[in-house]
Amino acid sequence: MHHTPPIESALLAAMSAQAGPMGARAALVHLRDKGFEVSESTISRLLRELDDRALTASLGKKGRVLTEEGRRAAANLLLDSRRASNFADALNLRDVHDLVDHLAGRRGIEREAARAAALRARPEEVARLHEMVETSGSGRWQERLGFHRSIGEVSHNKQIQAITTTLFDERLDPLEHLLVLIGIKQEALVRWDEEHRAIVAAISARDPDRAEDLMVVHLDGMIRDTELFADGGNAHVIHAVLAEIEST
Ligand SMILES: [Zn+2]
């Protein structure tokens, strides 16, 4: 997919918001207002590129307008950025309630991921999952988002993959530390480890019902552990870690 640079998105958005044609000078002022450090030559090169790609059309001295294709591109970019900010908002966890909701959302997606993985994972992918849970069993096991990310990948379901890659974004790595902390305090790490192995065994046995059930049990357990941890007078610990994540 063509990745649109922010400056190009900003320019297309500005032209789409404007009723008439936009001149190079107005485009320059607008982009500088938006915080882009651009020169006049950069602007004219950018505008020529947009012309070449038939996203804009020149009206001579009056400036340029978006073509129909350009308007479509601008509308899509707007949708993309709304979607991105919706996700960013959802991943901005504030309290125990948000964290439990996050795990419950994961349970809904990941049960389908585990199911699809049992049906679709390639033999070499199953081997990699085995390796992942075996090497982690040597006493230094931690609840790893990596395991969950991998299940999403090997589901070979585009819809699931799109959601899981966003859910397991590296920005959420500090969340893993929080879950490890909860796992240690609730003495749940060994159990989580065993559950990971059992999920891989079910995927390996090509048993979708069992893989799905085990994933639900695994996330139910994590939700319960999180609630018990919070109820045990540790809600402030969760809030402090989440606040730290948000500020990074
Ligand atoms: Zn897990």
From TrEMBL:
Keyword Endoplasmic reticulum: no
Lineage: superkingdom: Bacteria
Entries under InterPro entries matching the protein: GntR_C, RNase_R_HTH_12, TF_FadR/GntR_C
Record's protein name: GntR C-terminal domain-containing protein
Claim: Transcription is one of the keywords in the record: yes
GntR C-terminal domain ranges (all copies): 101-221
UniProtKB keywords: DNA-binding, Transcription, Transcription regulation
GO function term, MF aspect, one: DNA binding
